[in-house]
Every structure is written in C-alpha cells, then in structure tokens.
Amino acid sequence: VDKVVPVFPWFGMDIGGTLVKLVYFEPLDLTPDEIRTEGEILMNIRHYLTSNRAYGQDGVRDHALELNNIQLGGRRGNLHFIRFPTSKMPNFIDLCAMRHLHTLTFEIFATGGGAYKFEKDIVEKLKISWCKCDELDTLIKGLSYLSKLNLKECFYYEEPQNDANPNKHPFIFDTKRPFLLVNIGSGISILHVDSERNYRRITGTSIGGGTFLGLSCLLTGCSSYDEAIQLATEGDSTKVDKLVKDIYGGDYERFGLPGHIVASSFGHMNLPEKREQTTKADLARATLVTVLNNIASISMMCARTENVDRILFSGSFLRINDLSMRILAYAMDYWSSGQIKAIFLEHEGYFSAVGCLRKFIM
Ligand code: ADP
C-alpha cells in the first residue's frame, strides 16, 4: 500500500522559553497538478518565506544554515531555518490570520512549552489542526535525522585554546553508541541517549542561556543576546572572578588545582576598588564563564556516572558563540584528561523543530 504523503505546507515549530524556531520545507518537485491546486495563499507564503531573510522587526532566516536539495519523505526540497522571539508569538498569530492562513486547512506539528501555552489562541484564531509533540522526543529525532543527512553537522575543536588555529573538524557521529546530549536553551536538560527511541533525562539546571542573557542585561545594560556575546568576547573574566592563585599565590598542588582555575565566580566583586577596575565587557565575560563552568562541571559529572565518552551540546545558547564552544571543549578535555570529547552541532537550537517536521513522514 502506498503511504499517503500529507499535503504541503510542511512546517515544524518549536516554541521555546526564549525563541521560536520554525523550519520550513520548500518543495522543489511540485507536479503541475500540485501547482494548480496549491492556490494563491500558499504560493504567496512560500514566496514570502524564501525570498526574504528578515521578517518584520523580529523574524530572521538563518540563511547560512539552509540545507538545499535534500530528500524528505520522498520529496526533494530546501530546508529553511527561521527564528523570532517567543515574546512576539501573539504578533505572529495575528500575522498568520492577516495572511489568511485561517482559510486553509493543514496540520502543524509543534513542540516546546509554547505548543501548550499558545494552543488555545492558535486553534481559535487560525483553525489549523495543531499537533503537539514532546520537545525531547523531537530533539532526538531531529538530531538523528540531521546528523545522517548533513555530514558536516557535528564538529569538534582540535585545539580549542589556540586562538590562531582552533581547527574545527567534522565529527562522523555514530549514534549506535550511547552519548550525553546537553541542550542549552533558556534552561538546560541533560539526556543519556542510547538510541532514537531509548533515552532518559538525567537531570537539568536552571542556570542556562536565559541566565547568561538576563544577568548580562542587568549587569551591562545591554539589550540583546548578540550584544551580550560581543561584549563577552571583548572582556576579561579574571578581573571579576577570584582565581586559585589569588587565594594561594600559585597552584593548590595537593589536589592538582592550577592557579588559573576559578575558585570563586564573581569573587572579586565585594571590593569597591576591584569593581572600579571592571568594564561592562569584563562583567559579560564573567557571566558567560560562570554559566559555562557550571555546565561543564555538571556535564562532566553526568558523563562519568553514565560512563560515556562523548558529550553533544545543542541549543541556541551556542549561536554565534564560538567562544563558549571552545571554553566547553577545553574544559571537557582538561578535566577528563582527554578521555571525554565535546561535540557541537551546526544547527544548534533547531533540532526539536526539525524533529516535528519529521512527523510528516512517519
Ligand atoms: P528555548 O527553547 O528555551 O527558547 P533555545 O535553544 O532557543 O531555548 O536557546 C535560548 C537561548 O539562546 C537564550 O537564552 C540565549 O542565551 C540564546 N540566544 C541565541 N540567540 C538569541 C536571540 N537572537 N535572542 C535571544 N536569545 C538568544
């Protein structure tokens, strides 16, 4: 029996605590019949999404992440990656209604907390059929699909500490062996993954990407993630943090703690003269390093108790954030004496949305 492939449009949506991630499959192999029956509204939407890179004030298409000419559910097309702040969800719903989406009948697969929070509003205003999926199920489904489809999806740093030449290499990822997946969104979830169907959430922490962004805004007066990352890149966290050598005058040799390790995050900031010497950039950098040290230490602990040697990091916190990835890679390498590898992903925060899209084909 032929499987019935659902009609277009194919959207997958992840409505998170901070960002909405929207993936859109643009079919390239529409038959004359499909083109005839597609209708003007869908044609306009397709054209609007694929010919712009920005949508209004807040929507952005991550053009560099686009995957061209791929196969999905027996169809050939381009995969587009779009994001906007979750705080603009009401405007998005109104825009869809204005573009007459509510006159069409199609399915949307959605995940993230917002799939629940906004359900009533969406179903009332847009009359589409709204199918909610679990965000961790779709995260793993999306990861499994993209890591097979895109040979450059996973990568690692050979020399994360070498500014001149950190050497980013593709990592051929074998999903058959268990690994740890650390998803750094607004908050953090840590999963032990055996296979696509067999995984567990081990733990989580509320000190995540949202914490970095929130504290950076408070401490530096910046107003966006991009700005906070730019500041952090320029800053020096050792003006803010108290290091082992600030306390010992050197290394704490007995327990193998080198002097350059942070002993106390923000530990200098009780002194007025130290506060006077810090810049906004230093504070942003220290905020970043504080969050990262916490992630590194929890991830390392989980990897040890779960006995795995690979940690994959996902989530939009790693967007335009080479600095954080290299700090994490170095921390894993250092604390595990090279036993545990940190692996990163090109499509960062989009896996759950991609996992939703896969619902169309299975
Ligand atoms: P969630 O699903 O909880 O929204 P994401 O994986 O989308 O989580 O990650 C959200 C985090 O990504 C933010 O807390 C912030 O640290 C970072 N981030 C990256 N780009 C942006 C952006 N354009 N706006 C806001 N936060 C961003």
From TrEMBL:
SUPFAM superfamilies: Actin-like ATPase domain. Pathway: Cofactor biosynthesis; coenzyme A biosynthesis; CoA from (R)-pantothenate: step 1/5. It catalyses: (R)-pantothenate + ATP = (R)-4'-phosphopantothenate + ADP + H(+). Keywords: ATP-binding, Coenzyme A biosynthesis, Cytoplasm, Kinase, Nucleotide-binding, Transferase. Its EC number is 2.7.1.33. GO terms for cellular component: cytosol; nucleus. The keyword ATP-binding applies. One of its GO terms (molecular function) is pantothenate kinase activity. CDD domains: ASKHA_NBD_PanK-II_Pank1-like. It is found in: Cytoplasm. One of its GO terms (biological process) is coenzyme A biosynthetic process. Belongs to the type II pantothenate kinase family. This is pantothenate kinase. It comes from Rotaria sordida.
